[in-house]
Every structure is written in structure tokens, then in C-alpha cells.
């Protein structure tokens, strides 16, 4: 083949690849399985299979998923109340930055709780009444308790619940659970950093004093944010900024 023909072939191949990558990007944006969606929209887009159209395995998986969603709702509601109390305690102990961090994570957990609630309501399920139970100790102990809670959710609870919701074909539940799982990983890192800072007496140097919370998925950022949430794609102008305790 002559050099000019080779060049033409390469151009043609490049154009095809470029076109394919463009169309796949467009498709990805419109793909309803993408997570870039508020739960209130997800429950409208993914209507549930009616019970008469489910086989017995699907019915069982769906019942398990709603049991999981109720448990997750209780966990997130309790975590939100607990972190608000931990925030107050940190401020009392003079750890203002940690107080702000707990306020941000408390806000985030309330978004998870609300997302789970929306999924339960869309499935005509009971939203449990929760009386949060927890003990407030020293800030260092509170941080370690928070870290243990996040670790359990990341390694055990949410992965199991997501497996179940996928098996049930409940996409709204899967999205809500995945938003929580991914956010808890951010919380875990925040707590690890705060524990190290407190133990090394560097709280006001190493712990951020401004936080941002994504209102769609609860993702929590310290100091600065990208243009769009890395979990839900929500524009950062919509984030809740937390820089005071009021
Ligand atoms: Fe959460
Ligand atoms: Fe969390």
C-alpha cells in the first residue's frame, strides 16, 4: 500500500474511533443505569415490577431488599443524630474543626436517611420510627466509634445490601445504597485523618474548617470541591457549605 493510502486509512480509522467514542459518551450520559440522578427522580424512572409479575425468588429478594432499606434507614438516622451530638462535644472540648467535620457528616447521613426513605415510600413500605441510641464519650473515643461504624458499613453492610438489591432488580434501592457506600468511604478517611491529628495535637493545622455536602448523594468534601460531585455528578454550586456551627 502506498504511503498516501495508508494515511487515508489511518484518518478513516481515527474518525470512526472518534465517532464511536463520541456516541458512547452520549449514550453513557443518557444511560438510565448511571448513578447521576436524584433518588426522587430514580423512583419515577424505575417503576417497580408489580408483585403479580414477579416469580417467588424475585418476591423474596425484593422483601429482603426492603428489610435492608429499613435497617439502613435506621442506621443513617442514628448516625446523623450521633454525629450531631459528637459535633457538640468536640466544640465543648475545643476542637472546632472536628465539630465542623461532624456537622458535615451528620448532614450527609441525613441525606442518606432521606434517600432510603424515598425508596421505601415509593415501594409502599413502612418507614420505621427511629429513636437514636448512642453514648457520647470523649472526642477521641467518638471519632473511633464513628470510624468503626463507617468501616462496618463499607466492608459488610452496604456491600451485602447492594448484592441483595441487584438480585431483586430494585434499581432505586441500588442507587441509594451505592450513594451511601461511596460516601462512607469519604467519611472513613475524614475520621482517620482527624484521629491522627488529635493524637498528634495538630487538629487546627490538619483538620479542615470548611466542608461541602452534596445534596443528592451526601458526598462530603473538605476544603474544596470539584466542579461536579464525583459520585452523583451534581454541580458543586448546589452543595451545602458548612463553615459555622449555626
Ligand atoms: Fe451514611
Ligand atoms: Fe458516614
Can you characterise this structure?
The chain is mainly alpha-helical. It has a single domain (47-242), classed as Ferritin, core subunit, four-helix bundle (Ferritin), CATH 1.20.1260. It contains 7 helices and 3 strands. A 3-stranded antiparallel beta sheet has the order 2-1-3. Helix 2 (39-45) packs parallel to helix 4 (96-122). The longest helix has 37 residues, at 56-92. Residues 1-34 have low confidence and may be disordered.
What is the CA-CA span between the terminal residues?
74 Å
Largest sheet: spatial strand order: 2-1-3
> Which structural class matches the secondary elements?
mainly alpha
CATH architectural grouping:
Up-down Bundle
- Total count of strands: 3
Profile the largest sheet: 3 strands, antiparallel
Shape: elongated
